[in-house]
Amino acid sequence: MDMSYYPANYPVLKIQDKLTEQLVARVVYSRPQKAGRAIFGDLVKYGEVWRIGANEATEIQFFRQVRIAGKKIAAGRYTLFAITNETSWTFIINKDTDTWGAFKYDAKKDVVRSTVTIQKTDAALESLAMAFEKATGGFNLVVAWDNIKASLPITF
Protein backbone atom coordinates (compact mmCIF):
# COMPACT_ATOMS: atom_id res chain seq x y z
CA MET A 1 0.00 0.00 0.00
CA ASP A 2 1.07 3.55 -0.63
CA MET A 3 -0.33 6.99 0.10
CA SER A 4 -0.13 10.43 -1.48
CA TYR A 5 -1.30 13.78 -0.11
CA TYR A 6 -2.29 17.19 -1.39
CA PRO A 7 -0.40 19.27 -0.62
CA ALA A 8 2.51 16.95 -1.40
CA ASN A 9 4.56 15.77 1.59
CA TYR A 10 1.91 17.05 4.00
CA PRO A 11 2.94 14.84 6.99
CA VAL A 12 6.61 15.81 6.72
CA LEU A 13 5.84 19.50 6.28
CA LYS A 14 3.49 19.32 9.27
CA ILE A 15 6.10 17.95 11.67
CA GLN A 16 8.64 20.48 10.37
CA ASP A 17 6.19 23.37 10.90
CA LYS A 18 6.55 24.28 7.21
CA LEU A 19 2.92 24.04 6.08
CA THR A 20 1.76 26.73 3.68
CA GLU A 21 -1.51 25.05 2.69
CA GLN A 22 -4.18 23.09 4.56
CA LEU A 23 -4.64 19.37 3.95
CA VAL A 24 -7.14 18.85 1.12
CA ALA A 25 -6.85 15.24 -0.11
CA ARG A 26 -5.23 11.87 0.44
CA VAL A 27 -5.26 8.74 -1.72
CA VAL A 28 -4.45 5.24 -0.39
CA TYR A 29 -3.75 2.52 -2.95
CA SER A 30 -1.88 -0.70 -3.71
CA ARG A 31 0.95 -0.61 -6.26
CA PRO A 32 0.77 -3.54 -8.67
CA GLN A 33 3.84 -4.32 -10.76
CA LYS A 34 4.02 -4.62 -14.53
CA ALA A 35 6.25 -7.72 -14.20
CA GLY A 36 6.51 -8.20 -17.97
CA ARG A 37 2.74 -8.24 -18.46
CA ALA A 38 0.68 -6.33 -21.00
CA ILE A 39 -1.33 -3.92 -18.83
CA PHE A 40 -3.98 -1.79 -20.55
CA GLY A 41 -6.38 -3.71 -22.76
CA ASP A 42 -5.14 -7.01 -21.28
CA LEU A 43 -4.62 -7.18 -17.49
CA VAL A 44 -6.78 -4.04 -17.11
CA LYS A 45 -9.61 -4.72 -19.55
CA TYR A 46 -10.91 -1.85 -21.65
CA GLY A 47 -14.49 -0.88 -20.89
CA GLU A 48 -14.60 -2.55 -17.46
CA VAL A 49 -14.56 -0.98 -13.99
CA TRP A 50 -11.07 -1.17 -12.45
CA ARG A 51 -10.16 -0.46 -8.83
CA ILE A 52 -7.05 1.49 -9.96
CA GLY A 53 -4.47 -0.66 -8.27
CA ALA A 54 -4.51 -4.06 -6.66
CA ASN A 55 -6.07 -5.73 -3.64
CA GLU A 56 -8.37 -3.43 -1.63
CA ALA A 57 -10.06 -0.79 -3.77
CA THR A 58 -8.28 2.56 -3.91
CA GLU A 59 -9.60 5.10 -1.43
CA ILE A 60 -9.59 8.85 -1.80
CA GLN A 61 -10.36 11.19 1.07
CA PHE A 62 -11.22 14.87 0.85
CA PHE A 63 -10.76 17.01 3.95
CA ARG A 64 -12.86 19.84 2.54
CA GLN A 65 -15.44 20.28 -0.19
CA VAL A 66 -13.97 20.04 -3.70
CA ARG A 67 -15.33 20.01 -7.24
CA ILE A 68 -14.85 17.31 -9.84
CA ALA A 69 -16.31 17.78 -13.33
CA GLY A 70 -18.17 20.80 -11.95
CA LYS A 71 -19.93 18.79 -9.23
CA LYS A 72 -19.51 19.58 -5.53
CA ILE A 73 -18.03 16.68 -3.57
CA ALA A 74 -18.44 16.83 0.21
CA ALA A 75 -15.53 16.19 2.55
CA GLY A 76 -15.29 12.48 3.28
CA ARG A 77 -13.93 9.08 2.22
CA TYR A 78 -14.72 7.58 -1.18
CA THR A 79 -13.59 4.73 -3.40
CA LEU A 80 -11.85 5.60 -6.66
CA PHE A 81 -12.44 3.48 -9.75
CA ALA A 82 -11.79 3.96 -13.46
CA ILE A 83 -13.00 2.62 -16.77
CA THR A 84 -10.10 2.62 -19.21
CA ASN A 85 -10.01 2.57 -22.98
CA GLU A 86 -7.38 3.28 -25.62
CA THR A 87 -7.64 7.08 -25.53
CA SER A 88 -9.38 8.04 -22.28
CA TRP A 89 -10.23 7.03 -18.72
CA THR A 90 -13.45 7.66 -16.89
CA PHE A 91 -12.63 8.28 -13.23
CA ILE A 92 -15.41 7.28 -10.82
CA ILE A 93 -15.82 8.57 -7.27
CA ASN A 94 -18.07 6.12 -5.39
CA LYS A 95 -19.60 6.18 -1.88
CA ASP A 96 -18.93 2.49 -1.12
CA THR A 97 -15.71 2.20 0.92
CA ASP A 98 -13.71 -0.62 2.53
CA THR A 99 -14.19 -3.03 -0.35
CA TRP A 100 -11.89 -5.44 -2.17
CA GLY A 101 -11.32 -4.87 -5.86
CA ALA A 102 -14.30 -3.91 -8.00
CA PHE A 103 -16.20 -7.15 -7.43
CA LYS A 104 -19.11 -5.45 -5.60
CA TYR A 105 -19.00 -2.18 -7.56
CA ASP A 106 -22.44 -0.53 -7.57
CA ALA A 107 -22.98 2.31 -10.05
CA LYS A 108 -25.93 3.53 -7.94
CA LYS A 109 -23.36 4.64 -5.35
CA ASP A 110 -21.41 6.81 -7.82
CA VAL A 111 -20.96 10.41 -6.71
CA VAL A 112 -19.39 11.66 -9.94
CA ARG A 113 -17.75 10.44 -13.14
CA SER A 114 -15.18 12.42 -15.09
CA THR A 115 -13.69 11.38 -18.43
CA VAL A 116 -10.16 12.54 -19.25
CA THR A 117 -7.85 12.01 -22.20
CA ILE A 118 -4.81 9.87 -21.38
CA GLN A 119 -1.21 10.66 -22.24
CA LYS A 120 1.28 8.13 -23.51
CA THR A 121 4.72 8.31 -21.92
CA ASP A 122 8.10 7.46 -23.45
CA ALA A 123 9.19 5.17 -20.64
CA ALA A 124 7.15 2.37 -19.07
CA LEU A 125 6.58 2.69 -15.32
CA GLU A 126 7.04 -0.67 -13.55
CA SER A 127 4.81 0.11 -10.54
CA LEU A 128 1.50 1.93 -10.51
CA ALA A 129 1.99 5.41 -9.05
CA MET A 130 -0.36 8.15 -7.87
CA ALA A 131 0.51 11.70 -6.93
CA PHE A 132 -1.17 15.07 -6.62
CA GLU A 133 0.17 18.06 -8.54
CA LYS A 134 -0.77 21.70 -8.07
CA ALA A 135 -2.87 23.23 -10.85
CA THR A 136 -4.71 26.49 -11.44
CA GLY A 137 -7.68 26.62 -9.08
CA GLY A 138 -6.84 23.33 -7.40
CA PHE A 139 -4.81 20.23 -8.21
CA ASN A 140 -4.73 17.08 -10.34
CA LEU A 141 -4.61 13.48 -9.21
CA VAL A 142 -2.09 11.91 -11.60
CA VAL A 143 -2.22 8.14 -12.09
CA ALA A 144 0.58 6.50 -14.08
CA TRP A 145 1.47 2.92 -14.97
CA ASP A 146 3.20 1.23 -17.86
CA ASN A 147 3.33 3.91 -20.57
CA ILE A 148 0.03 5.62 -19.66
CA LYS A 149 -0.70 8.69 -17.54
CA ALA A 150 -4.15 10.06 -16.67
CA SER A 151 -4.88 13.23 -14.67
CA LEU A 152 -8.12 13.95 -12.80
CA PRO A 153 -8.66 17.71 -12.28
CA ILE A 154 -9.94 18.66 -8.82
CA THR A 155 -10.82 22.26 -7.93
CA PHE A 156 -11.81 24.13 -4.78
Description:
The structure is a single chain. By secondary structure, the chain is mainly β. It has one domain (2-155). It has one helix at residues 10-15; strands spanning 2-6, 25-29, 49-50, 59-62, 66-68, 71-73, 76-84, 88-94, 110-117, 119-135, 138-155. The strands form 3 sheets. Strands 1, 2, 3, 4, 7, 8 and 9 form a 7-stranded antiparallel sheet that branches. Strands 5-6 form a two-stranded antiparallel ribbon. Strands 10-11 form a two-stranded antiparallel ribbon. It is globular, with a radius of gyration of 15 Å. The two termini are 27 Å apart. The relative contact order is 0.21.
The biggest beta sheet is recorded as:
7 strands, antiparallel
SSE-based structural type: mainly beta
Number of helices: 1
* Number of beta-strand segments: 11
Number of individual domains: 1
Radius of gyration: 15 Å
